[in-house]
Design a protein that fits this description.
The protein is α/β, with parallel strands linked by helices. It is built from 10 helices and 13 strands. Strand 5, helix 5 (138-153) and strand 6 (157-161) form a beta-alpha-beta unit.
Length: 302
């Protein structure tokens, strides 16, 4: 009889969480629980847990009841402007909940923390796992603080720095969802020509999470596409993939927009460690192709 690994995924209704749930469920040897603010209908009966993760007492009781072998912490406040305006709430979601989860039986529980490329200041790009962090907005500050907490309390952890794109279960406001909503109606949009990243499709990242669990990896790892790209060029490639006129995508500087929170200009990550560890390269065009296929399969996005 195959022994199953009990996994708790926070934010299992989110862009990344839903894909990790699907992948681990199909793998067969994982007993998957999902935690969200509302019921997750995609999970088997009794596997969906409703919890506000800022309620630390409730969070602790639920984790104690489930007794997971693995916790994958996807839930976070990712609204950069919102974090800047409501720092106390950002702390509760992004730092305090992480501390609560990471301290559960750290000697035996694998803790997977989904962090961000934004922990770097964006001055240079090509950041390695050992590069000194220097967050320049409050969202990035909370993620950096959470990383430090995880490293200090759970040596059996995986910290994944990345930058994802994809779909929410219901229509969301992510970069790709916003862009497609406009482009498919033939409305013009603008992309930053001076902001660089190496994004991954959520299903690409979900597969990496699975492989890291399978080899029992611990430590920090950068997960990104093999080549960085500007957000302007990324949106043009998105348009081309969906057979939309790429000239609908205009080119602007991030300096042209008055944000409350500063934005780093080049958070591209070095993926040499990932390539050596798993012998894989992540291609942006492969991710966009998979994104298109999933879009066409989902009636809610047709």
């Amino acid at each position: 009889m195959i022994e199953t690994t009990k996994v708790l995924i926070t934010g299992s209704n989110g862009m990344l969480g839903k894909d990790i749930v699907q992948l681990l469920t199909l793998a067969g040897n994982y007993d998957v629980f999902g935690m969200n603010r509302k019921h997750d209908s995609s999970l088997a009966e009794g596997k969906s847990v409703v919890c506000d993760i800022t309620n630390l007492n409730e969070l602790q009781m639920i984790v104690e009841e489930i007794q997971p072998n693995v916790i994958i912490h996807c839930a976070a406040m990712v609204d950069v402007e919102g974090c800047e305006k409501n720092k106390e709430y950002a702390d509760k979601i992004n730092v305090d909940s992480t501390r609560q989860l990471a301290t559960f039986k750290p000697e035996s529980t694998k803790f997977v923390y989904i962090s961000t490329d934004s922990v770097f200041d964006g001055q240079d790009g090509g950041y390695g796992e050992d590069t000194a962090k220097n967050p320049i907005n409050y969202y990035a500050t909370t993620k950096s603080l959470a990383e430090a907490v995880v490293e200090s309390v759970n040596r059996n952890s995986i910290i994944i720095r990345t930058n994802i794109y994809g779909f929410h279960k219901d229509r969301g406001r992510s970069l790709v969802e916003w862009a497609l909503n406009e482009l498919l109606e033939h409305r013009k949009i603008s992309g930053f020509n001076d902001v660089y990243f190496n994004p991954v499709y959520t299903k690409q990242l979900a597969r990496i999470v699975f492989e890291l669990l399978e080899i029992n990896y611990s430590g920090i790892i950068h997960v990104g596409a093999d080549n960085p790209i500007s957000k302007y060029e990324f949106l043009r490639r998105l348009a081309l993939k969906f057979k939309v006129d790429p000239e609908l995508v205009g080119s602007i500087s991030v300096d042209d927009i008055s944000f409350n929170a500063k934005r780093p200009k080049n958070t591209s990550l070095s993926t040499r460690k990932l390539q050596k560890l798993l012998n894989c390269e992540i291609k942006i065009d492969d991710g966009l192709h998979e994104l298109l296929r999933d879009y066409l399969e989902r009636s809610s996005y047709k």
